[in-house]
Amino acid sequence: SKAIAVLTSGGDAPGMNAAVRAVVRTGLSHGVRVMGIQRGFNGLLSGEVVEMNLRSVSDIIHRGGTILYTARSPEFNTPAGVQQAASTCRSLGIDGVVVIGGDGSFRGARDLTESGIRCIGIPGTIDNDIASSEYTIGFDTAMNTAVQMVDRLRDTMESHDRCSVVQVMGRRCGDIALQTGIAVGATSILVPEVPYDFQKDIIERMRFTQKTGKKHFIIIVAEGVGGVEKLAQDIQEATGIESRATILGHVQRGGSPTLRDRVVGSEMGSVAATLLYKGKGNRVIVMQGGKIVDLDISEALNMKRVFDKNLYEIAHRISI
Ligand code: F6P
């Protein structure tokens, strides 16, 4: 009988489980079988596919990571890999797949759709780096974790009159850095989207606030800018203020999802499963104007991200 399937691909993100749960329950509520594909597209090459029931997604909505495991799959990203994945789907009676992940996963979803297996993408990544969607599942949790961690750094930096240079995740995208930076009152925020000048954007800003009595400082740096060890040294040399570098790293990827990630994950998962049930494919579920809508995958992949320069400007205007 007819079946749909769900997989998570690329870097994991808190809230992916909520989306998986919603796909499974919505599919079953429509009366179709639902399969869980393990380790991203790899599961379609290795045959790691399990039948899901209502209870296989119990007790996961509050859990980080993904119960389906995830992977980045170079083997799948070849014409032969895509063919093999499509034939696995056909042999299992799967005619539609919900793919939860980032841009790379969406390209996989488009390729698999071209091979005859209808796919629907859901944006799941902590980076918020998907042009077609205002929001990606995991972003809120990652930022809240980053804020908690920086608050801890603040305690010790304040006690020692030091400067904390903190690297947050985001290889090509400064969104985590921007919002975390605002939330912790960072003196400077460095993002890959905006070039910076060491003297003007860091040292002069620190000196200015120092004149009005500030004694400890937080500089938030996106992973895509990087170089926090060197930056901390340079700041210490230029200002005489003791500086320490911290790379938050993968702690930002784990932990229990926030309300927002659970709710957005649930809604997107459910909408995706219903679209598959209705025979639709080659779509991505996105947030636009605060609403959950669907778009053509290729159209979505061709969109260009716009960095929120206004918010970036506000951040620096008020961190004085
Ligand atoms: O895309 C999510 C992300 O955490 C990025 O912020 C980061 O650059 C990358 O994944 C890290 O990848 P990995 O988990 O392979 O180290």
TrEMBL record:
InterPro entries: ATP_PFK (IPR022953), ATP_PFK_prok-type (IPR012003), PFKA_ATP_prok (IPR012828), Phosphofructokinase_CS (IPR015912), Phosphofructokinase_dom (IPR000023), PKF_sf (IPR035966). One of its GO terms (cellular component) is 6-phosphofructokinase complex. The active site is at D127. It comes from the Bacteria. It is found in: Cytoplasm. Keywords: Allosteric enzyme, ATP-binding, Cytoplasm, Glycolysis, Kinase, Magnesium, Metal-binding, Nucleotide-binding, Transferase. ATP binds at G11, R72, S73, G102, D103, G104, S105. Its cofactor is Mg(2+). Pathway: Carbohydrate degradation; glycolysis; D-glyceraldehyde 3-phosphate and glycerone phosphate from D-glucose: step 3/4. SUPFAM superfamilies: Phosphofructokinase. Belongs to the phosphofructokinase type A (PFKA) family. ATP-dependent PFK group I subfamily. Prokaryotic clade 'B1' sub-subfamily. This is ATP-dependent 6-phosphofructokinase. It comes from Caproicibacter fermentans.
